[in-house]
């Protein structure tokens, strides 16, 4: 399996360590009543994964010179929202997948009712952290802006809306514009929020910088989904940590199905190059963002 380049690998490892400490701090212990719910929450949130979204929080914050201690709360919050979305996506009423990150999906391990509650509780905890983490930015307006950013990205105008569009489109043939609109909401909204949460942790980040980072995020969010679609065709279940070929089984429109594999790969490369152009005015402190963009289109899981 292809591994990230050494510089990115080291940055990922550092971000993952910070995130794990934050998650351990905020997640209720498995022995806390109600035990079954808290065990299910921890099972999903601490079950590995690439941690790309919180890493983007740290990377964008570093790019604009934000304090690292201010970034732990939004990084933790974004990962908990992502974890909740995975639980709900895997449910029989949604994608009906019984494997996640190489282990049984939450509803397979704990039952559907507990899985739904675990997802709900993880979502609530994300916003609790943004309001209560004493190490986060002391600026109230910035905290409110972070809450607004994350709530919009997770809701009907973002990730949840994208999932709804996806469900409605099952068995239908979408065109490229419709497919991109779906993924801009379903996958792209949370990736975009990750980048923006890190950037707004520094209150004097300029509007120009925010616009460039937002464009970068839109590009890599779409590239991420294209690569996911490609891996669903070419990847193996053991490597992906989830069942390969599910898109075809669920009769979903994908980039390879509409464009062909080679054209889909080319589109992902073009988006990566566009993302790089948007970072041209940033110094070397933005290099992790550059590394992540390349990694997204080359990853094998």
Describe this structure in words.
- The protein is an all-alpha fold and 301 residues long.
- A hairpin with a 2-residue loop joins strand 1 and strand 2.
Topology:
Layout: H1 6-26, H2 35-45, H3 52-64, H4 68-90, E1 99-100, E2 103-104, H5 106-110, H6 112-132, H7 140-154, H8 159-169, H9 176-186, H10 188-199, H11 207-234, H12 237-240, H13 246-249, H14 255-259, H15 261-278, H16 287-298
Antiparallel strand pairs: 1-2
What spatial form do the alpha-carbon principal axes imply? Answer: globular
Q: Please state the structural category.
A: mainly alpha
What portion of the residues fall into strands of 2 or more residues?
A: under 5%
The number of helical elements comes to 16
Question: In terms of per-residue confidence, which ranges show pLDDT below 50 for 5 or more consecutive residues?
Answer: none
Helix content: over 70%
Work out the radius of gyration.
18 Å
| Overall pLDDT metric | 92
The biggest beta sheet is recorded as: 2 strands, antiparallel
